[in-house]
Here is the input.
Amino acid sequence: MAEKSSSIETPVNGQEVEDDESNAITMVDVLKEETELEEDANAVLGASDPLNCTYPQGYVKRQALYACITCIPADSDKERGGVCLACSYSCHENHDLVELYTKRNFRCDCGNSKFGGNKCNLEPVKEENDKNKYNQNFKGVYCTCKRPYPDPEDTNDDEMIQCIMCEDWYHGRHLGVNNAIPKDYGEMVCEQCMSKHPFLWNYAGLCLTKGTASEQEVDVDLKQTAVSDDSAPSTPTILINGSAGIELNTPGSSQKSNVETPIHDGKECILSNFKPVEQCKGATFWPEGWRKQLCLCPKCLDNYEASAVSYLTDLQDTVQFYEEQGKAKAANGQASSQYDHAMHALSQMDRTAQIEAIHGYNDMKDQLKEYLQKFAESRKVVREEDIREFFSQMARKRPRIEVPSFCR
Here is the structure.
């Protein structure tokens, strides 16, 4: 980008135009943002099927989901429901959809009894999914503040972070960590889930409570302890180094590995070797690969199963794994672009709706050209706020559309 200066001495009607270059949008900015949005879309949607309902696959390990507020209003007493990516296109076009990002072990609800007898266009016959789990996100609210996102009343520029256990989303300022969020972390567990699953505190030595992963060592050191021939075999001991890592002293081993290297063989429980750790308030942040350190002895595996958290031991459960699948499909040309999604949505409309959509696009294009022409004539810089204002005006002018018959 061009270097920023304080003002531009360009006379217009005898006056100087103040330089808004710091807030200006160049075509490079637009293309860069479009590329970033495309990459984000590929990460979230790339591993999900945009054409086929996922119901026949059963409870999918992880997929992009949506809640339809048109079909099941947020203030309704009806049970919540979630729909897959393909159904969001084919069955809920022009509906008020809440993007849920991804959820684990979920089977598509579209068209089942929760939707008032309105059948799914892709898979008309569906039973209710008693293993699905629903949180407040399905009503369009998030965090402990129970607010929508984006929140029209919230002026704070705050990051939303998803807990890997309850899968709710939280504002960074509501995580109880005084904004001490590490720059490089893999996953977050909210305070409520840490309280619900206290066994996680046994691994608190892996937490990135402050700083970054590069600033605090999260390595697992396997140090060899000299043992004489006549000495009794010693028990491996695991020592917590502050709040940043785990140190394992075990006879007969001498190697250093990072946090992703398991420190157990799954036969003996390692928890008894951990030093007690005082439980703290607030969310916890964990480095990538920390799940590999979880004890895999039979007793701990049974405890995970009883607590319904066995997914923690499945490395393919992570959002990172899911996103990498989407990116890989995009790199191989298998993922659909936003253009492809738009063309698919257009193809699902009847002839009248297609014509209206095309007319609407052409009208928007003409109005945007006319809007930008004013800036060209006055030689003003187009700012990001100007573009947002244009689309806000377009939204206010948009005619109200009746609720589709599918939702009645």
Observations:
- The chain has a mean pLDDT of 77.
- The helical segments are 27-45, 85-90, 191-196, 298-306, 319-331, 338-347, 351-378, 384-397.
